[in-house]
Amino acid sequence: MLMFGMTYLKNVVTLELDTEKCSGCKMCTIVCPHNVFVVQDRKAKMINRDLCMECGACSINCPEGAITVRPGVGCAGGIMQGALKGTPPTC
Amino acid sequence: MLPEYINSTLKTPVGDVWQVASQWSRKDLWETIKVRWNLGRMNYRVKPGLYAIGNPDENAHIFVTANFKLSFDHLRRALKGMNAWMLVLDTKGVNVWCAAGKGTFGTKELTYRIKAHELSKLVSHNKIIVPQLGAVGVSAHEILNNTGFHVIYGPVVASDISDFVKQGLKASPEMRKIEFPLKDRLKLIPVEITFGGFYLLLVPALFFVLAGLSLSGYSVDDAWYRGGRAVLNLFAAYFAGCVVTPALLPWIPFRRFSVKGLISAWAIAALLYFTVGLGNSLVEIVSWLLIMGGISSFLAMNFTGSSTYTSLSGVLKEMKISLPTQIVGASLGLLGWIVSLFI
User: Nearest C-alpha of chain B: how many angstroms from A53?
Assistant: First the structure.
């Protein structure tokens, strides 16, 4: 069957990895629900960056502070509510 | 009176702990159905704190969850047949993932609960099992620093817990991935349907009344005929946005939810066009395409919040173009429809 699948927009996410700081602890591969990271030769690597939903789990669970992302909800309703109330987007 | 899911009280080194049933009662099931229809969803809670499943001792695992009762119920059901502790965080009645996004299911609350319930006196190990989606709010290395407890991230879905435990607290790669299967999307549709609330009556009623207007004064026949059609078209658009788009999500072309919603609306409009008709004049037909497209596209865009794979940056990018388009489109449609009443 024809499938367009569940991938969202390309090249928009704010996820960044500083390989220099990475110690290869694999925590990012454990917490990411979209399989964005793999660890090869004791260094993390992004293999599915466009699948990132910017939840921020990898970033706050990285003991080396090697991962940065602007975390937030991918939720149009939350974004509109936030804009109306002047608060950050929240669902 | 105690909630009916509490079986008894267990004496422990840290005081009395409620022991809960792992089986759902008829009442639990009925309440789950109500919550899925958005009835009392915002106030469906259990008391935060420590609970027991079976007869846990100092070697038993500790599982963390949120105090949204649906989260609590799914965990206790998944722990059936085990002896385990449940630590329920105060997330103000919000599920694990959303609460973790807000930070209420977070490092601070978990640290507080581990200390307040004296878990280091309760168990002889120092492991605590947190649902993987809770990692959005919980920092494992900070918990270790704060409390001496090692956070072990469990599977995404509670029903995998039994296998996770059997495999020695190891989650397979499949257990670590969040999916969004048809079954889960269907569960979310009722809440989407309730989204319109009062407007579901008000807007069709307004269309119905306006439909009687014409150059020769007010016509009750026109109200019935054109108004009836308006009500049908409006509900068809609502259905396209809240039911068709979520259900068929991966099979509708394009990545933007708003475009998926537009396609659903126009597919249904085409169906109506070839059966009962969409309008009497070209102006009316085009107006309905614009109104229906705008409504369905907007509702579909709102489903980004229920989906498991959209990012903030992506939704912002999508909304930048889609939201103004929806507003302008639906407004032009409304204008066109009013004009069509007088030609």
Answer: 4
Return residues 18-77 of A near B (CB < 8 Å): 27, 30-35, 51-57, 60-61, 63, 70-77
pLDDT tens readout for residues B240-299: 999 999 999 999 999 999 999 999 999 999 999 999 999 999 999 999 999 999 999 999
Confidence of residue A1 (pLDDT cuts 50, 70, 90): very low
What digits encode the pLDDT tens for the residues B164-187?
999 999 999 999 999 999 999 999
Alpha carbons within 13 angstroms on the beta-carbon side of residue B151 total: 30
**Distance (Å, whole) CA A53 – CA A38:** 17
Strands of B150-154's sheet in order across: B6-12, B15-20, B49-53, B84-89, B61-66, B127-131, B150-154
Domain ranges in chain B? 6-176, 182-341
Query: Which chain B residues touch A27 with a CB distance below 8 Å?
Result: 140
Measured from the Cβ of residue A39, the count of other Cβ atoms closer than 10 Å reads: 16
Measured between beta carbons, the chain B residues lying within 8 angstroms of A1 are: 251
Whole-number average pLDDT of chain B? 96
How far, in Å, CA of B240 to CA of B227, rounded? Answer: 20
Residue numbers in chain B where pLDDT is lower than 50: none
Q: Where are the domains of chain A?
A: 16-85
CB B310 to CB A7 under 8 A?
Answer: no
Residues of A in contact with B252 (CB under 8 A): 4
A16-85 CATH, one of 3.30.1330.200, 3.30.70.20, 3.30.420.40, 3.30.1330.60? 3.30.70.20
| Residue A89: closest C-alpha in chain B | B312
B316 → closest Cβ in A2, A33, A79: A79
Task: Tell me which residues of chain B, numbers 307 to 326, contact chain A at a CB-CB cutoff of 8 Å.
Answer: 307-319, 323
Q: Considering only CA atoms, which of B42, B93, B32 is closest in space to residue B68?
A: B93
- The CATH number of domain B6-176 is 3.40.50.11600: yes
